[in-house]
């Protein structure tokens, strides 16, 4: 059996993505690994950071070994200055995702692991883009996917992802919640090997709506969906007030928390594990994991970017790939 082949997209070239990819050359990893990025950007970032790397190319990707890095060269359009965004390179950033996606869909890659992109500069270039999660769902023809972050002993999934806060309440509908919980439940079983997942579900409003005095979404939407899915055999707790849910699960453990929106769930997880967390997309027809942080333009080319989250993302992708083999 050949070693699993992981595609690592280098992400925004002006951010820390290239620094982290170059740092992978210093690691022993039990896989074949190909970085999708601009070879010259990676070469010059390695030189700037004082890391000696033997760059490899070619269709056959060898076993990863310390000191070397296989690169699938996909050229940037414009010269890259670490820390300075240039919307001329946004098409290149998307081309990295397209190449990784195509390889995952046709079985050439066992998983994709993504370094961070800058959503704003991609939009500045005229592309509608809210995140990898939504982009990969759209471009793989998958209906709904679920973002889940893992770290610090927590798994936190989101009912809605990159949405302005004023749109969140309208997006929390019974069909959406039922679909998200089914995907979360199925992938906790299939990809994380949890036979009977227990999922704690947050309310949307303060105090989970305070019996309807602070909002009715819990009564009208969330609780009925949970009740229906309990009848299908799922172990669901909630809707619980989000402010106390995370302290409650310390003594009433669950396998995952479902938060209603991005900044309800992720600050807790990032506080618990920033720099070592992993973002995983559930519901895709292939494995995709990612770092828990952004482009950190302030650190690009400085040598101060931590590689821990990218390594954790690769390790998780490898675990998931090996359980699927
Ligand atoms: N997976 C992805 O593609 C993600 C992309 N982003 C995007 O990144 C851009 C910047 O987002 P921000 O909110 O500024 O978050 P950020 O994560 O880039 O930066 C927040 C703070 O964390 C530090 N930091 C980030 N990564 C680090 C690392 N590897 N080692 C040490 N310190 C690190 C930064 O220096 C900064 O102080 C935005 O466009 C955002 O959408 C944000 C999160 C994930
Ligand atoms: N906060 C998570 C994030 O912004 C990364 O999202 P995605 O690009 O993985 O969809």
UniProtKB/TrEMBL annotation:
Q: Which organism is it from?
A: Thiobacillus sedimenti
**Sorted alphabetically, which Pfam families does this protein's record hold?**
PdxA
Reactions catalysed: 4-(phosphooxy)-L-threonine + NAD(+) = 3-amino-2-oxopropyl phosphate + CO2 + NADH
Q: Which HAMAP family match?
A: PdxA
Cofactor binding notes: Binds 1 divalent metal cation per subunit. Can use ions such as Zn(2+), Mg(2+) or Co(2+).
- EC number(s): the record gives 1.1.1.262
Additional facts recorded: The active site is located at the dimer interface.
Cofactor(s) listed: Zn(2+); Mg(2+); Co(2+)
Q: What is the lineage of its organism?
A: Bacteria, Pseudomonadati, Pseudomonadota, Betaproteobacteria, Nitrosomonadales
Gene3D superfamilies registered for this protein in UniProt: Isopropylmalate Dehydrogenase
Purpose: Catalyzes the NAD(P)-dependent oxidation of 4-(phosphooxy)-L-threonine (HTP) into 2-amino-3-oxo-4-(phosphooxy)butyric acid which spontaneously decarboxylates to form 3-amino-2-oxopropyl phosphate (AHAP).
Gene Ontology MF annotations: 4-hydroxythreonine-4-phosphate dehydrogenase activity
Where is this protein localized, as stated in its record?
Cytoplasm
The UniProt subunit note reads as follows:
Homodimer.
Q: Which pathway does this chain act in?
A: Cofactor biosynthesis; pyridoxine 5'-phosphate biosynthesis; pyridoxine 5'-phosphate from D-erythrose 4-phosphate: step 4/5
Q: Where does substrate bind?
A: 132-133, 270, 279, 288
Tell me its family: Belongs to the PdxA family.
Q: What is this protein called?
A: 4-hydroxythreonine-4-phosphate dehydrogenase
């Amino acid at each position: 059996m050949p070693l699993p082949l992981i595609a690592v997209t280098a992400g925004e070239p002006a951010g820390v993505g290239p620094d982290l990819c170059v740092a992978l050359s210093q690691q022993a990893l039990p896989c074949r690994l190909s970085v999708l990025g601009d070879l010259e950007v990676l070469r010059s970032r390695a030189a700037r950071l004082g890391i000696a790397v033997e760059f490899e190319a070619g269709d056959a990707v060898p076993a990863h070994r310390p000191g070397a890095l296989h690169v699938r060269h996909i050229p940037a359009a414009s010269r890259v200055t670490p820390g300075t965004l240039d919307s001329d390179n946004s098409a290149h950033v998307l081309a990295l995702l397209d190449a990784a996606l195509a390889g995952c869909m046709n079985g050439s890659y066992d998983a994709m692991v993504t370094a961070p992109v800058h959503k704003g500069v991609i939009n500045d270039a005229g592309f509608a883009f809210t995140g990898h999660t939504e982009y990969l769902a759209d471009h793989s023809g998958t209906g709904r996917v679920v973002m889940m972050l893992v770290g610090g002993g927590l798994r936190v999934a989101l009912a809605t992802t990159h949405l302005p806060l004023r749109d969140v309440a309208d997006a929390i509908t019974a069909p959406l919640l039922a679909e998200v919980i089914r995907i979360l439940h199925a992938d906790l079983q299939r990809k994380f090997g949890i036979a009977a997942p227990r999922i704690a579900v947050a309310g949307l409003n303060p105090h989970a709506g305070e019996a309807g005095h602070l909002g009715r979404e819990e009564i009208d939407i969330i609780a009925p969906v949970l009740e229906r899915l309990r009848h299908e055999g799922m172990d669901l707790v909630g809707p619980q007030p989000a402010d106390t849910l995370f302290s409650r699960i310390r003594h009433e453990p669950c396998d995952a928390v479902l938060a209603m929106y991005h900044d309800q769930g992720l600050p807790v997880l990032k506080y618990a594990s920033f720099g070592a967390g992993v973002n995983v997309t559930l519901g895709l027809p292939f494995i995709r994991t990612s770092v828990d942080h952004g482009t950190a333009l302030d650190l690009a080319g400085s040598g101060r970017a931590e590689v821990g989250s990218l390594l954790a993302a690769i390790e998780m992708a490898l675990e998931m790939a090996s359980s699927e083999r």
